Each structure stands twice: as structure tokens, then as C-alpha cells.
Amino acid sequence: MSGERGAREALRRKERRVPVKGIRQLPFARIENRYPPIQLLSADEIDAIHHASLRLLQEVGMEVLHEESRRVLKAAGAEVDETNQRVRYAPELIESFVAMAPAEFTLEARNPAHNVKVGGPHVIFAATGGPAFASDLDRGRRAGNYQDMCDYIRVVHRLNVIHQEGGCPIEPTDLPAETRHLDFYRAAIALTDKTWQCWALGGYRVEDAIEMAAISMGKTRAQLKASPVTLTVVNSNSPLRLDIPMGEGLAAMAKAGQPVAMTPFTLAGAMSPVTIAGALVQQNAEALALIALAQMHNPGVPVLYGGFTSNVDMRTGSPAFGTPEYTKAALASGQLARRYKIPFRSSNVTASNCVDVQAAYEGGMSLWGTIMGGVNLIEHAAGWLEGGLTASFEKLILDAEMLQMMREFLNPLQVDEDSMGLEAIREVGPGGHFFGTGHTLARFERAFYEPMLSDWRNFENWQDGGAKTGTERANAIWKELLKSYEQPAMDPGIAEALDAYVAKRKEEIGRQSA
Amino acid sequence: MSGERGAREALRRKERRVPVKGIRQLPFARIENRYPPIQLLSADEIDAIHHASLRLLQEVGMEVLHEESRRVLKAAGAEVDETNQRVRYAPELIESFVAMAPAEFTLEARNPAHNVKVGGPHVIFAATGGPAFASDLDRGRRAGNYQDMCDYIRVVHRLNVIHQEGGCPIEPTDLPAETRHLDFYRAAIALTDKTWQCWALGGYRVEDAIEMAAISMGKTRAQLKASPVTLTVVNSNSPLRLDIPMGEGLAAMAKAGQPVAMTPFTLAGAMSPVTIAGALVQQNAEALALIALAQMHNPGVPVLYGGFTSNVDMRTGSPAFGTPEYTKAALASGQLARRYKIPFRSSNVTASNCVDVQAAYEGGMSLWGTIMGGVNLIEHAAGWLEGGLTASFEKLILDAEMLQMMREFLNPLQVDEDSMGLEAIREVGPGGHFFGTGHTLARFERAFYEPMLSDWRNFENWQDGGAKTGTERANAIWKELLKSYEQPAMDPGIAEALDAYVAKRKEEIGRQSA
């Protein structure tokens, strides 16, 4: 028998049974990452990627399908070929516009306690956005619907570690496609008082978001322009294309002063070269082109540099997430974003189809890549499953636990006379134990991270408690959080004004599509 | 619908079905970590811990229950109080002996292809050692037994990513306690030709290991002393005590020139202060005391600095593993080990009672702490469950996958003209895809990490395949590896000599205990 096990056995005999009531979680807090990021690539290698991407933009350029964007690009000095909608950019053009983007900004929530800072050392965890399906252990996987979407936002609101609603966790496919964004915005504003993300697909969806955000905050659009409140993701249609809906969304956000995370969808081997270095060159070119475009629409508008490079399984064509390649790409993307002094967006991703060990270890590989890459905004930080097609209620809890652990990890270790506790060690002496010392008693309540999901009981107690897996425990946790959810207060006048806006817009959109 | 999901959906439609035959895994390889480790603490903070631990050794000292050790310590200049077996160390005494330990050494396997380097940039993954129970999905948890132990070693042999047997994965409690180490050594030598670890509890167990290792290698003990072949862990009985069996084991290993990982069992809040800084001070004091003692036995003998600091759940007294505190302690321990230029040992740990998401995320937090802490030897790298009480067959596969991913992560990203692939991007152009380009075709077979356990199929294909979780897939994998296991060849004369040695020793030990 090894000594390590012997010591553990001795300790386990001392284990007491203390049931925990309710759901234990950390309080809401803004997070700062003071650790130096991992420098995966040398400064020369980062420079090489930078210069290759500028060359790509100069020689090949982007296909910009959105006419207004081409007009703005041409006015700013880009070379625009209307015959094939191709736009080519001189390196100085890109560099001068990219330099206008701010390094840090604040996003205001309708509850000021939930305002978040973007950039610098700040880290924001946003819930997943975009999935078409919902799933949980009880009801399995099902098409996205309004009820599930609302319940998901309620649980997101209850999870203190999540800073931001992520742009509709579950698409309400039971509602009309043309107006369901209004139902989502109305729900996001009502069901949480954290910041929320809007939809970039089409200018009118962005306009509705900004109008509704203004109503919810009791502010004018001019006030919002000076102090942003919502955020969205614009994906280039990789390789090297900006399509019309995304071009419209980008333009509307930029003109309204709202930040966009410019995120090329560069899956190595499919939409980008089969090498991660090649995918990064392409990612960087596309991100810089979109960042510059936003600055042409509105100089100084806040943006984020989005890194989403991953790879496909070359045997099947399936996208892979949370791979070693993904981790390396995230670290390198952070280096690139810092080169441009632009806040960095990355993601917590997995290709797993269920909430299992794969979902956890692929998520862990992603999270470490983002955090040690100096991320500022983690999109899909909680809930994403199945390559983003599904929002899982249990995955939301699993991720919230992993995020809590990361947040605690980012809390620097204190090293001083008091924490080194020489006197306590002297007092206990060889062979003693520290349970009852004054040094312990003064600190034990807040000494260590206390988990929400992890079960640290010994085997016998765990078995007596039903031998539940982490995923089964996550199921109980989200249901308890949903059951005890209370909707944050809202001024009735604001609620009425939002309802009136939604009703008016549904009527208008219905008339247009009729 | 978000653009990110739209792109994924487009890609998933292209997914082909390619079944993979057999178990796909990476080949055996030595690993180097060329990334700079995370400097969690400042140089001043590391110095503060160093000086506090030396002060602790000088003022409080260690209780050394093993008489020979006290004799050696006294001869070397330590202050020994025989009335209470307390040993106090002048700082210069510790520093001068610690300085004798080598920064790097090689461990030889009976198959030279499986030799491993310890220290510097080298990283070794050792299977779990010490568990009293075995478990798998089919048969549940059961007391350790010889058959399970042998099967576990067979799977460890088959998993190429694991470099080293870890000192008996499952204790054969169905065999007599006094002689079961012989059965384990005999099995470890026969069933794998990788390096293996021996038992430190009691000098005779170490002597038997060295004799049997010498027979297995066809070498003399003098040859082994010059070129080590086995390794063990010595735990101090924290706080500040070295007990007799561990003292004997340490002495026997040191005199035989075999390396020991000196590993204080400093669980913050129980055997060490409730602060991680305090636990690190105590860990450092105990580790340095044991490292110095080994050098007093045999100057220049290889050793490792073991960091095992974790914490207990202060509500229940349960030990916790893979916590944020564990990760921080691992990173700081690596900084301490590098201060002394001694190879660093850490571990892949979890408190989970089953192979679930918790096992995966606690393992992930541990692994990142070890790797970015600059670890040289990861003990329990694969298989440990339930705070080390159980070796799980499915956990072994889960960990092997996570280790493979880490190994791939440590493979630096290549950035040059060729990998940046500008020509390929130019060739494909806006809106195209890269599946069929020459750049892709020339590289696709080895472009990306190919998983052993992860399932990247889309939901429908995964469901058609039985909707198996990662843990269920791990179950199928270890059974397949065990089924297709082939015992490595051994000279029949050596096998006979080993059998004769075991028989003789069992007879001798039986006579002594009769």
C-alpha cells in the first residue's frame, strides 16, 4: 500500500457528513486575469502571420456581397471591383482603420451592478447563443422553442458566474422566423437584467435590438451610441467573403455604436487551409477586414477580435472542437488580438453529442486556451453542445462549474507572512493536524473554492446518496435554479413600451412579408 | 440563426461516414515541453516560501522515526534530539545537500525503446499506482486482486501514450500482504517492457525490486546504481514526520542509486495550514528535508521534487483534488522545483467516485497545472479515481485520451511560408472550400490530432451508433486493448531466474513471519 493512499484513508475516516441546502454558488463578480498569457508563438511568428494576412487582403482581398459596405470601403480608399464584388485593401488602409478601435470599453446592463468591462485584464463569460435545439436528460433533444428559450435564459440569469446572455440560447423555431428576434429580445430584456447579445443577421434585426435596448434602459439612441449596451457576433463567410445579412448587421451595429465580435469561421481543412498557421493567416485577414470596415462606418466604434479557428476530422469532414489544435489557435489568436490592442473573443466548445466526459475535456481544453490566451469575452462559455447545434441544460451547469473553477484560479495566490502560517505549523508540530488551530478556525469558511456540481463525498456516502453522476447532479441543479427563479423587477411603463414596440414591429413585418 | 451555426450546418451536410477499424492511438514517444511555464508567483514570493521553509526546518525541524536516517543526518551535521527523534537542519546544510541532486537523468527500461528521460524539458506520463480497489462499468467496484492488477498492467502496456507503469495500479489484496510486492514486481516485469515503479514501504520491498530489476535487465546491482531502472514515491507523514517504513524505503533506494519522488502529503486544512501558501511552505520544507537525506545516503543520487498540495472540503473534511487551489499549488511547486534544479513530479487527480464529467474536469484542471507548471513526471497520469482509492479501467482510457491531447498540444505550431499556405488560399479564393486543394491533399493524413475516445460524428450518426457516452466508449476500448494484448518477449532464462528469486523470497519471508 502506498503512503499516499494510507494518508488519504486516514483522512477519509475523519470525514463528516454535512448536507448542503440549496444551490451553492459564487456571487456575481467582474473578473480580471492578471496572469501573463501563454506566448505560444514568437514575436517573429506573430509578425509573419500579420504580414501574410495583409498580403492576402492586398492581393486576393474579400468578396463583399453587401453593396453599402462596398460603397463605404471605396470611399475609405479600398480598391473595389464591382464586376465581381471583390475588395482589395492596401496594408496601410487596414492598419490605419484597425488602429481606431478602442482597447477597452464598458457594456451597460439595465441593472448597473451587471455592467461589464471589455478589454484589458477583464474576462466576460457569455452563455451560449445560436443553438437550434434544446436538450436535457428528462426530455432529450428537441427543436428549439419559446418555452425552452425562456427557461434557459432564466437559468442563465440565476447562474452568477455567467456575466452575459449570449444571443439567444435556443432559437424559438415555433415562432415565425421573420419576427422571432423580437420575442427573443423581449424575453432577454425581461428575464434577466444582465447584458444580452442581439442578432446580426440583417440590419432590421439589429435596429430592433437597439430600439428595444434604448426603451429598456430609458435612454435615447444617441446615449446608447456613446455608451453601448448590446453586442453581436459577425461571422465572415469564410473563406474571404462577407455576405449581405452579415454586412447589414455589421453596418447597423457600427453606426449605432454597438460592439461586434468579428469572427471568421475558419475550420482548418474545410473553409481554410489544412494547417493551423494557414487558418490563422486567413482568420486574421478576415477579422482585420471586418474590424476596419466597422471603423469606416463609425471611427472609434468598439469591436472585438474573434478567434474561432478549429479543424475538421479529415476522415469524415466533421468539425472538431476543443482539440489541441483549437487550444493552440486560441493562444495564437490572443497574441494577434493583443498586437492590435483589440479585445479578444474566444469560445468554450465541444463536438460531443451528450453531456459526458468528452464534453468536459473538450470544454476544458477550450477554456484553458481562451484563459491563457488572454481572452476578454468567452462566447458560448456555458451550455453549448454538439458543435453548437444544441443548448443543453445540464451542459450549462457543467460549464458554470468549470467557469467558477477558472474564476477561482484567476484569483491570485496570496503569499505573505500571515498566509505562510509558520506559527500555525510550529503550533501543530510534527504528526499533528490543523483542523482545530486558530489559523484554520479564522479562515476555514472562505479558505477554498466550494463547488456547485462536484461531489467530494467518499464512495460510501456518494453511494448512499444515489450514486449520481455529475450530469445527473447537473440535472437536479438547473431544475432547482429554475424553480427558485424570480424575474428581476422592471418599471411597468418600460414593459408596456416594449410590448407596444414588439406589437407594432410584428404588424409592420407581417405587412411587408404579406 | 447565427452565422456560426449556419456555417456548421453547411459543413455537417458534407460529413461522410468513415468507420475506423481497431483502436487508433498515437505511437510511443518521448515528450518535450518547450513552452515557458506559467509563473504563478513572483521570484520574491518563491524566495519567501523558500526562506520560510528553511526557517521551519531550522526551528521546528522534522520528526524522523527511522533510526538509520537519524544517524545519517547527525553524521552530516544536522542537530538530532534522540529524546523526541526531532531533527533540525541549518539552512546551509539543506542547501548544500540539495545542490548535489542531478537536474536530469535517464531511467532504463528492459526494452531500450521505452527508456525515459527525467528532468529538463522531458515529460513522463506514469499510470496510477497504489489504489486498493478496481472498477469498471461491467463489474463495478471491487477489492483489488491479482487478476485485475495484471489486466490493468496489460492495458497500460498497450496504451502508447503512457510511458511508465506507476507502482502497482491495483493492490492484489487476494495475495499475502508480506509477499504481494513480489507478485506485483514479477507481473510488472513480464507484462510490460516499459519502466515500472516499486514500493517504498519498507527496505526489503525496495531490495526485492532492485534484485528483480537487475535480473530482468541482465545487469549487476553496481550497473543499476550507475544507471537507474526503477523509481518510487516517498511520502512524508505530514506534518513534518518521516516514518520508519518510508525512511527504510528512502534509504534503500538512495543507496542503490534509484530515484525517489519526495512527495509531502500536504492537504491544506488537514495536514498543513488552511492557506495554500502555508501548505507550500510545509511541502517545500518536507521535500527539501527528504531530498537532502537522500543525498546524505548517496551524494548525487537522482531524486524528484514532489508537489501534491491540495485542500480538504472544510465542511466535511473530505480531500479535494483537481481544484483551482490544486492547480495553483502545482504551478507554484514547479517554480520551486526549478529553483532547486530538480525534476518536478506532480499528478492527475480527481475526487470523483465515477468516470463522469467531474472526473474529466478535475483531471483537466490537474493536467493543466502540471503541464504549465513544467512537470517532468506525472504520477497517476492515467486511471486514478476516487481520490486514489480506485483504479478504473474506463478512467485509464479517458486519461489516455486527455494525455494524447496534451502531448499534441506540446507539439509546437509550425509557422513558415509553407504552413501559412498563402498560395492555397489564393487558389481557393472567396467562398470556395479547401477539401480538394493540393495543399490539403499533401497534408490531410497527418494534419490533425486523431482521437482515441472522442466521437466527432454528427448527432444522427452518433445516435445510429448507439448514442454511447464517452465512458461507455472507454469501456469498449479497454476491452479491445486487453483482448488484443500480446505479452512482450522475454529471455526464458531470465523468466526462470525471476521465478526462482520470487520463490526463494516467498519462502524466506514466510519463514520469518512464521
TrEMBL record, chains A, B:
The keyword Ribosomal protein does not apply. Keywords: Methyltransferase, Transferase. Its EC number is 2.1.1.-. The keyword Methyltransferase applies. It comes from the Bacteria. It holds the Pfam family MTTB. One of its GO terms (molecular function) is methyltransferase activity. InterPro entries: MttB-like_sf (IPR038601), MTTB_MeTrfase (IPR010426). GO terms for biological process: methylation. Belongs to the trimethylamine methyltransferase family. This is Methyltransferase. It comes from Dongia sedimenti. The lineage of its organism: Bacteria, Pseudomonadati, Pseudomonadota, Alphaproteobacteria, Rhodospirillales.
